Amino acid sequence: RAMAALLAVSEVNASMGRIVATPTAGSCGIIPGVFVSTQERFGWSDDEMTYGLFAAGAIGYVIANNSFVSGAEGGCQAEVGSAIGMAAGALAELRGGKPEQAVHAVGLALKNSLGLICDPVGGLVEIPCIVRNGFGAVTALAAADMALAGVRSVIPSDEVVQVMLEVGAAMPEKHRETAGGGLAQTPTGKKLMSELRKKGRPLRKAEDERGNAEA
Ligand code: SF4
């Protein structure tokens, strides 16, 4: 059920529909996927979900003020990773965990995303972004389960956020949403872009320039 909800939201984003950036457009499916599925499962009211959103927002606020939340700045670890941390902490809170457990859920989730590069094919926030949201939701659900079962993030969440900052700052530009490396520059990634170019689909400026240079 989480997959269905998050894929729907991510697809709407990729087709230029209106979504809520949580914390960004590329990572917009994770919180809806986790929230919609768990609200159905546990029968929470919309008011309870609103408090969950406040918890997610507070976690995102802390991450944004101490590290990155965009792929262009810190790679996908910052974008999808932050969304996973926000969803995990909020879910631990919604399920009755103590604030300390919610924060451990954030740390457990973020640690599993460190180092993830941002490499969307053509910069179109579709491949691999949509399925990364799916795997992200699974991580968030697992992190909340672990924290509620008493698993702690031995490296405190604040320190994990600092590692995200360190890794993001060291990440080469080609792995920060420029579509200049990673999956975007695989033979298949380039072929897809070339086909879209031939169809006249508007591409991101950097990708257009890269295509012109190659031509
Ligand atoms: S690969 Fe980049 S654009 Fe896609 S979800 Fe991750 S950070 Fe966002």
Secondary-structure content class: mainly alpha
Q: Which molecules are bound besides the chains? A: iron/sulfur cluster
| Number of extended strands | 0
Largest sheet features: none
Q: What letter string, H or E per element, gives the SSE order?
A: HHHHHHHHHH
Describe this structure in words.
The protein has 215 residues and is mainly α. It has one domain (2-214). Helix content is 65%, strand content 0%. It has 10 helices and no strands. It has helices at residues 2-14, 30-42, 46-66, 71-74, 76-94, 99-111, 129-148, 157-170, 187-198, 205-214. α2 (30-42) packs parallel to α5 and α6 packs parallel to α8. It is globular. The chain starts with a helix and ends with a helix. The structure holds iron/sulfur cluster. Residues 26-27, 71, 76, 79-80, 118-120, 125, 129, 132, 177 line the site of iron/sulfur cluster (SF4).
Chain-wise SSE layout:
Elements (H helix, E strand, L loop, with lengths): L1 H13 L15 H13 L3 H21 L4 H4 L1 H19 L4 H13 L17 H20 L8 H14 L16 H12 L6 H10 L1
Helix pairs in contact: 1-2, 1-7, 2-5, 2-7, 3-5, 5-6, 5-7, 6-7, 6-8
The structure holds iron/sulfur cluster.
Iron/sulfur cluster binds next to helix 5 and helix 7.
